Amino acid sequence: MKWLFLAYLIVNPLAYKIGVDLRSFQEWFYQLSSMIIIFAGLFINNKPIKLSLMNIVLSVFGLWMWCLYLMYNQGLHIFLNFFYGFCVYLTVIRTLNKKDIEFVLRGIIGVGIFTAFYLLLQMNGFDMRGATVLNSPNGAIPQCSIFALEAHMGMYLTIALLAVLSFSWSWFLLLIPMVFSKSSAVMLAGCVCPLIYLWFKKRIFVWMLLIPLVLGGIGYVVFYDNPMGMQKSRLDMWVKAIHDIHRHPIGYGLDDFRSGENSHSIHYFKRTFDNTTLRVIKRGDVWYAERGVSRDIASQLKAEGRNVFDFWDHPHNEYLWLWYETGYLGLIIFILLVYFVFIRFFTSKRSKETVSLFCMLIAFGIFSLTHFPLHVARIGHLLPVILGLFFISTEAE
Prior knowledge:
mainly alpha; 3 strands; single chain; 2 domains
């Protein structure tokens, strides 16, 4: 079964078809490969799953998502993605054992090494997939290896870095391509999570690395990420979203944040609009406008101080997204889940594999501060596998 999981880890980030939207295709491939894993697990000798409060909380969260779907009749693909992920998680627990953890982690490392190698080729003008990856209007391909977005590449490399930590000190090498992620959350995870690992395994090195990693992270945010100007617009959008969350504590339903402007969708920007408002989205230094208005006019209106709103169809914050769509109950269930993950870790023997897997979960938590890794298959497919391995690693401890 471990070989099937290795294939699962390889094909999901690499899934690609010319002329097809990458995100949609990889989500479809994630569901297909998950079904194969789940069905294969039914025919392989497996062990019973011990009763665990963590698994009970996960099941309750799934039931609440199902209730939200029935109430609002939207977001079925979100619920299915969670359902497939939960079943993959259970399949990991039933079919793998502690001896398989190292094998699976090496598979993640292998994809990370390939990602870095492909990035090197890309930087030298070679990309065999072509510009159709992003359907970019000017044909430009960002330097993001196989992941279509720099931030997603950085997330995967961070997870690979943490997997390397349990085997070798060469993890520093993966910090180099992470610089190209253009994401402060990725760099924060890449600096903080190795320190957490070292705190539990080689504490003396924490004090040696603390100052250079902290200074490097601060310098990255101040001189590289902050000038891009995205942080301010995100904060403005988060404030609007939180205002609307309090108006509807039960939640607005799955996929409501980006499902389109209707009677109960995308509430966060409704109060920002009036008859003279122009909704735009900024990508890089270019403004794109609605209703066929040229980007030059949009930029001019912005410069004149018109009520031009920088539209975000994602909150770029998994916690806010979960809170907005599943309400206070969903947030409480999530907090309980995090609590039981920490309880399992601190009551374990904290082997190097356990600490490495725990740091990967922390990394996902940091990514989620400014991104949505659980809503993108090329990154999200890792979480049920990592969580399942973490459960196995702490099960007997």
